[in-house]
Amino acid sequence: MMMGDQFRSKVEQYSPKSSPRGARSPVVSRQDSTGTLKTTISLGKNPSIVHSGPFYLMKEPPGQSELTGATNLMAYYGLEHSYSKFSGKKLKEQLSSFLPNLPGIIDAPGHQDNSSLRSVIDKPPICGKDLLPLTSVQLAGFRLHPGPLPEQYRYVNQAPQRKHKNKHKKHKHKPGETLSGQEATTTDIGGPDPHEKKHKKQRKHDEEKERKKRKKEKKRKKQKHSPEHPGGLTPSQHSNT
Amino acid sequence: MASPLENLETQLELFIENVRQIRIIVSDFQPQGQNVLNQKIQGLVNGLQEVDKLKSQVQDVHVPLEVFDYIDQGRNPQLYTKDCIEKALTKNEQVKGKIDAYRKFKANMLLELTCVFPNELAKYRAIRGDE
């Protein structure tokens, strides 16, 4: 009686009527401890009947593929050279080092000046029209006024040229010369280190200049005052001050 | 004969050079430069036509979209190649590690099961063969 009740309650529990999946047979764990299930029939792309003996749910093992992640795929595809090429040397970060001949500042983010390639994909330009040379009427629209460009546009245009000039100035730079503000702001091509060095050099030069000036002034004072005031500062006292 | 990509590269370089020259003309415009400017503008149209002609030759070239992100950020696109290679190598090593671990696990499992269920494992081996 007890067993029957249990069975009934189980059946009710898994009844297709009450099943949330509708009329599908419910998933019930079936135990096959007797070993009566001798074969497993698997359907699908490659239907097969496997004699599984006492083993329940025994499946065909997946077919072994020739190429797996166990092989060194870099060597398999002959990409070791590329790997050593890119991993060995330190690549320069800037886009300008990849396209050195491209004029203009190209290292700035594209979205700043609306020149990003992503925007071309997101908002594709109108295409399909033939590209025709401009007529004389259309060219009249490009008639310009003589004279230089307004200040704000000139700055954008001259920036790459300045960069170029500075490279030359860098070599011509004489010791003792002070750098102008423009140079200091645009010589950031080689990273922060050369910057610091330059500043240090500049400081050294400035300090040396000041020292020399002070010495000269003191000498002058000495020459002026020594005959009249014998009790002037001694050289040791000078160095102390 | 140059490859389609080389042709395209040359055409783009010519186009960029043309634009650069226009910029110089325009930056301090002289009235006598109008004709030259007009020629240069027509040159731009011709340049675009040439680039457009080469379109069909590079249809089979596929560029990963991620490279565009690198370029848009002002970064060297070779860094993308480098990152890809490094990622592939890391993944390859991880998968190899997993495969090796599963192999060891299977060998140990069979060993232990043979100790506990020798008859069943004998049957299993008979079905599976010498795996």
Low-confidence segments of chain B:
none
* SSE pattern of chain A: HEEHHHHEHHHH
The biggest chain-chain interface is:
A-B, 56 and 52 residues
Beta-strand portion of chain A reads: under 5%
Quaternary structure of the protein = heterodimer
What gross morphology of chain B would you assign? Answer: rod-shaped
Portion in helices of chain A: 40-55%
Tally of helical segments of chain A: 9
Biggest sheet layout of chain A: 2 strands, antiparallel
Task: Note the beta-strand portion of chain B.
Answer: under 5%
Structural class of chain B: mainly alpha
Question: Your description of this structure?
Answer:
- The complex is a heterodimer of chains A (241) and B (131).
- Helices cover 43% and strands 4% of the residues of chain A.
- Chain A has helices at 2-13, 73-76, 80-88, 117-122, 136-140, 151-172, 181-186, 192-225, 235-240; strands at residues 39-42, 48-51, 147-148.
- Chain B is mostly helical and 131 residues long.
- Chain B has two domains: 1-61; 63-130, no CATH class.
- The radius of gyration of chain B is 31 Å and the shape is rod-shaped.
- At the A-B interface, helix 3, helix 4, strand 3 and helix 6 of A face helix 1, strand 1, helix 2, helix 3 and helix 4 of B.
- Strand 3 of chain A pairs antiparallel with strand 1 of chain B, so a sheet runs across the interface.
